[in-house]
Amino acid sequence: MSMQVDQSSHDASLVADALLREHPDALVCAIADSGLLLPMPKSVSLWGQEALEGRTVFDGVVAANRKAVVDAWWDVKREGASECDVRLLASPSRRTTLHFFDLREDHDVFLAVLVPGDEAANDDTATAEPEIAAAAPRFSTLLEDENGTILESDEAFTQMFGYTAEDLIGKRVLDQIHPEDQARVVESWVTMLSTRRAQPMRCRRRRKDGSWMWIDTTLHNFLNHPDRKHVLVEILDVSPEMAALQELERRATIDTLTECYTRQSILGELELALDHDGSARTAATHAAVIYLDLDGFKAVNDTLGHAAGDELLTQVAMRLRAASRDGDDIGRLGGDEFLVVLRGVPTIDVALRAAQRLCKAVGGNDFELSSGTTALRMSAGVAIGDGNADTCDALVQRADVAMYRSKDQGQGTPVVTRDGVEPA
Questions:
Q1: Identical fold at 9-128 and 254-418?
Q2: Does residue 366 contact residue 373 with C-beta atoms inside 8 Å?
């Protein structure tokens, strides 16, 4: 429910001050226009209230009440003050009244005051839920000197990463940064020092247990401020966002049925292998491809069903991976067709032996499926690049032609071709 206030910002300050005097047990926080929490201005008089921890008010509120917080936030911007009932993660059985005040005219911030209600609230939802632990913080800060040595950390940082203050003070920040991200972190640090502007970056930081957390970090240069003389490091946990992005990338890259590369991805890997061949100073090794197709797969689908066909493809992929070299890539082109990209191949004979190994792995033993047992052969076509003018499409096409020659022979043995010459 919104509190209707048709008064000036100065009048809102008077109402806020009266509320603070009446409720010294309240939680308070200062808020920027963006909704992010700010340090409390010294001009705001407090009466023993504790500060709300977190990056936003949302961090401390149960999920069911977050829409009410959003509505109240918009109301305070329109009306100067607003309120709503919420439950905090730290004490969900206790109803709390959240008050927002627009104090920008007097203090240049919005003010949130969270006034706790009675423990035994007459609220079915509140009394039904047990107390739960507060959510781990997602926002924290460090103070560092000009050399990146930690001077001070807040409690939220120790909760996020598992370190004690003794573990951190006097230690170099770079020791906690993922090796692959250290160059980017150093570059951001140097930019912050030289420009004296806030510098954002994204990197992985090590927890005390050895795991890595993706974080967004903003560096604020206060080294030339006489009352500060430090760099303020703001840290935001973005692990959930990065996990979602990585899952999307994985789904776009990996075939969900066989866990092989998708068609687009395996062709991309072949392009990279050919580019490496073209730019290499030596022509001692080349990229090669093996085009694979199952013989008799349609009959399995027709007699045992599509579920059996999917199960069979999964087992074929497992056998191909087991018979491949480390560093070779396997992709599913579609249906029952696979493409294997070989790197560092010195001669066509080496690629041919790899294809023979794959054909034997697939055709050497029966497949035990949920709906029965089946045996298959695999046709294979092999083509090797020349390290110069090969294109991805041309190499795959030559291997495809060779595969069809293998299928015509009906023996489950690979056929090779090179430089556009008729398969041998």
A1: no
A2: yes
Beta bridge partners of 142: 153, 233
Q: Which residues contact 299 (CB under 8 A, 6 or more apart)?
A: none
CATH fold label, 9-128: Beta-Lactamase (3.30.450)
DSSP string covering 121-169: -S-HHHHHSPP-PPPPPSEEEEEE-TTSBEEEE-HHHHHHH---HHHHT
CA distance 361 to 346: 23
Tokens of 277: 């061949």
Q: pLDDT tens-digit profile of 23-41? A: 999 999 999 887 788 889 9
Superfamily of domain 139-243: PAS domain (3.30.450.20)
Judge contact between 233 and 152, C-beta under 8 A. Answer: no
Domain 254-418 adopts which CATH fold?
Answer: Alpha-Beta Plaits (3.30.70)
pLDDT digits (tens, 9 = 90+) for 30-87: 998 877 888 899 899 999 899 988 778 877 888 788 888 888 988 888 888 999 999 9
The number of angstroms, rounded, from the C-alpha of 114 to the middle of its chain's C-alpha atoms is 33
> Alpha-carbon distance 243 to 214, whole Å?
9
3-state helix, strand, coil in the chain (%, to 5): 40, 30, 30
Q: What DSSP designation does 85 have? A: E
